[in-house]
Amino acid sequence: MPDVTDPLLRFRDEFPILARSTYMVSNSLGAMPRTVPERLAEYTEAWATWGVRAWARGWWEMPLTVGDAVAPLLGAAGHEVAMAPTVTLAQSAILTALDFTKGRDTVVMTQLDFPSVRYAIEALAPKLGARVVVVPSDDGISIDQQRLHAAIDERTALVCVSHVLFRSAYIIDADALCAHAHAMGAVVSLDAYHSVGVIPVDVKRSGVDFLTGGVLKWLCGGPGGCFVYASPAASERFAPALTGWQAHQRPFAFEEQMAYAPGITRWLGGTPVVPALHAAIDGPRILAEAGMQAIREKSVRQTAQLVALADARGYKLSAPRDPARRGGTIAFDVPHGAEVAQALLARDVVIDYRPGAGIRVAPHFYTTDDEVTRVVAEIDDILHTEAWRAFEGNRPRVT
Ligand SMILES: Cc1ncc(COP(=O)(O)O)c(C=O)c1O
């Protein structure tokens, strides 16, 4: 029975999969809002009815109109957020906007940033005359904030780090980081894929220069909808070399020379991914209605519940114990973890598994407390009955 005292559970009916499964994997793919088929039908209907004229009926502007739906979730104003196809591309574009030839030639990253972003930045940086300094982690869970600050010096042009670390859900203090980096004269670009939608983010309070994320996970908006925030000052000061015609002041004049549009428009690229943007709208709207403060309070409560259940069984935790530093996902290692994870999936308890971290459980605003206890009760049963043995030798399923 849903907990009637939890007002966020009123949103459960918006997500059909919740009626069928214990869905604890919003750190990977958020549940689909029931209205997404209507949005996609609007897309096909427009294409079928208007053909090429659909561009003039909203398609062309969609990276900005959908960005406006995401903006309140990070404390941004209208027309400060643009949609982008991937975070890796968005972070790469930001890198190409900086000039590394004027004495500042360093990009600071951390060992626990998402590898895709590091692959791109580490490949691009030397071509742009920059070097990358990677701040190590001692425990594989956290990055020491003082160590991160100490790596930022007068050679640092850009600090490009995750806000919440994907592996452990450790929260880096964005306000302190921005204050320190700015005092040192460096620009900050946060990868907020694991913060926007599960913890309150306020770009105005932190003063961050750039912030990227995606609607795929916590924002329940499906694949293909990533976003980039650029502060108005950053848009005045910088323009990306990795660009496209949507960023031009007069894209349909097809001029030979680039003339960057003002503001957030200059961070757009080529032709927008229109179907993905249709799917991306409803999730962020529902989350904005639910309210980030309420979502965060519930997340802290349910992740604490998971920590207590894991501790009671002696499972090794790969997540911060301090709620102030803990994001939305709890990972813990159980015996025969890969097989147990597959047994859970077979029982429609949807989680994911990462070697080294263990089973990752991500309650979200639509999760009941009973579902949280059910995950661990099912693990108990799978271990007790040895149901995990049915999956011995199977390759872990990727979710
Ligand atoms: C922190 C973080 N950054 C970036 C990504 C993905 O980036 P992209 O949109 O380039 O696939 C993920 C995906 O899991 C992530 O966890």
CATH superfamily of the largest domain: Type I PLP-dependent aspartate aminotransferase-like (Major domain)
Mean pLDDT: 96
Structurally, the number of domains stands at 2
**Mind summarizing the main beta sheet?**
7 strands, mixed
CATH class of the largest domain: Alpha Beta
What proportion strand? 5-15%
Bound molecules: pyridoxal-5'-phosphate
Described by the principal axes of the CA atoms, the overall outline is globular
Number of strands: 13
Compressed to H and E, one letter per element, the order equals EHHEHEHEHEHEHEEHHHHEEHEEEH
User: How far apart are the first and last residues' alpha carbons, in Å?
Assistant: 27 Å
Radius of gyration equals: 22 Å
Quick tags:
399 residues, alpha/beta, Aspartate Aminotransferase, domain 1, Aspartate Aminotransferase, domain 2, 2 domains, seven-stranded mixed β-sheet, 13 strands, globular, binds pyridoxal-5'-phosphate
